[in-house]
Amino acid sequence: MDKDIAKIRTEFPILKTKVNDEVLIYFDNAASSQMPLSVSRKIFDFDQNYRANVHRGLHTLGMQATNRYEKARHHVRNFINAQKDCEVIFTSGCTDSLNLVANSYGEVNIHAGDEIVVSIMEHHSNLLCWQQLAQRKHAKLRFIELDQDQKLDLADAKKKISPKTKIVAITHVSNVLGGINPLKELAKLAHQNNAIIVADGAQAVGHFEVDVQDLDVDFYAFSGHKMFGPNGIGVLYGKRSLLEKMPPYRLGGEMIENVTRTQASWADLPQKFEAGTPNISGAIGLDAAIDFIEDIGLKKMHTHDIEMRRYLLDQLKKIADLKIYGPKNDTGAISLVSFNLSGIHPHDVASALDLEGIEVRAGHHCAQPLMQELGVESTLRASLAIYNTTQEIDKFIQALTQIKEFFENGIR
Ligand SMILES: Cc1ncc(COP(=O)(O)O)c(C=O)c1O
After folding, report:
1. With 60 as the cut, is the pLDDT of residue 411 above it?
2. Cβ atoms of 336 and 381 closer than 8 Å
3. Separation of 163 CA from ligand 1 center, angstroms?
4. Do domains 3-26+297-409 and 40-294 have the same CATH topology?
5. Is any ligand 1 atom within 6 A of the Cβ of residue 99?
6. Any ligand 1 atom below 6 A from CB of 218
7. Which among 100, 122, 280, 304 could bridge 126 via Cys, Cβ 3.0 to 4.6 Å?
8. Under a CB-based contact definition with an 8 Å cutoff, are residues 346 and 378 in contact?
9. Is the pLDDT of residue 412 over 60?
10. pLDDT, averaged across the chain
11. Rounded to an integer, what distance in angstroms lies between the CA atom of residue 156 and that of residue 390?
């Protein structure tokens, strides 16, 4: 095992845990990655040493909590290269961020006859809010399809994005297929047609560099728990010029400038979109998660991703009657592979793997229209992170082979 990876693994005590008497092999990182000690310690430090609400009291703890919360925002801004801190809105997660855009920007900017373009590979989080918006507004939802390699079909995108398009909402990386979508080209296409582009970065951030200015996306959403951070914290990046014109999505404390019996005016960005007590420890944990990623470096993260994908694909391809979904090559994708074993239900395979201490996901991955397109109800998905190794892949492949033999011939 690479010495650096061995060292990184020591930051994750959970990787020594036994599941069903076997040392855990955690291949469900696309659902939630594990959290390093450094992140847990920062959250504990807040809760035990300076826990207080933010942007309210003038007392020392309140100011300390506010400073750390705003420091986290500044760190996120630098991490994704936003122009201003106020373009970083803390939300409860990627789903919340996308709903914010649909229900605020979408509500005032979509009208009857307009078109919203998504792709067939969207997670329900980046589909349902647009589907419902289109229904409410009598707008049309259009889908960019897959190409022959099961990547996003850019030629189809050029057909679907037109002067009628008002919003393009696309995932940066598919949580089922693993392919990295050409976001920069899509942003260009959207802008050439006077549309805005909303990107779902849930499976991208923490895997490779994301520069929102270079991509020229209008909105970018992601979650902390998929990038070594805590649950319940997420980010919506938005261009300031757009966020400023948008109405608030949630109403309540700390998002107002002035309130009378009958009227209210809104606070400036980012508070306008952060009603109520935010997830302060979550933001502090996210800050620490970004430290963790930056200490390793996104280049190394990406290289590891490519190496793991290559090795995983090579090994999976050796198993007969195993169908792989998504791009068949190792670049232009993250270390996430969906597959099925012919004639064996993915849930049975996942349960059998769990008995060996190997955690993978089986299901529709909150992407049912994509499943319909692929002609299946569910798939197995192995998704790896920086702490996963080729030795773990070997054990996984061995277990998979034995499970296949058992289901086919009853031999184990
Ligand atoms: C591509 C994609 N988008 C959105 C989400 C939703 O993220 P969250 O549940 O953290 O809001 C997920 C979660 O799996 C995802 O994979």
Report:
1. no
2. yes
3. 29
4. no
5. no
6. no
7. 122
8. yes
9. no
10. 97
11. 37
**Is 366 designated active site?**
yes
User: Would you state the structure tokens that stand for residue 122, as one six-digit string?
Assistant: 């969207």
**Is the confidence at residue 138, as pLDDT, over 90?**
yes
- Which of 209, 269, 227 shows the shortest CA–CA distance to 93? 227
Tokens representing 9 are 């693994």
Q: Tell me the pLDDT band of 58, cut-offs 50, 70 and 90.
A: confident
Distance 238 CA to ligand 1 centre (A): 18
In CATH, the architecture of 40-294 is 3-Layer(aba) Sandwich (3.40)
Q: Is the pLDDT of residue 329 over 80?
A: no
Does the pTM exceed 0.85? yes
Q: Which CATH number fits domain 3-26+297-409: 3.30.450.20, 3.40.50.40, 1.10.10.10, 3.90.1150.10?
A: 3.90.1150.10
How many whole angstroms from 366 Cα to the centroid of ligand 1?
Answer: 9
Percent of the chain with pLDDT over 70: 99
Residue whose C-alpha is closest to residue 239's, from 200, 196, 283, 278 = 196
Judge if the beta carbon of residue 175 lies within 6 A of ligand 1. Answer: yes
**Where do the domains of the chain lie?**
3-26+297-409, 40-294
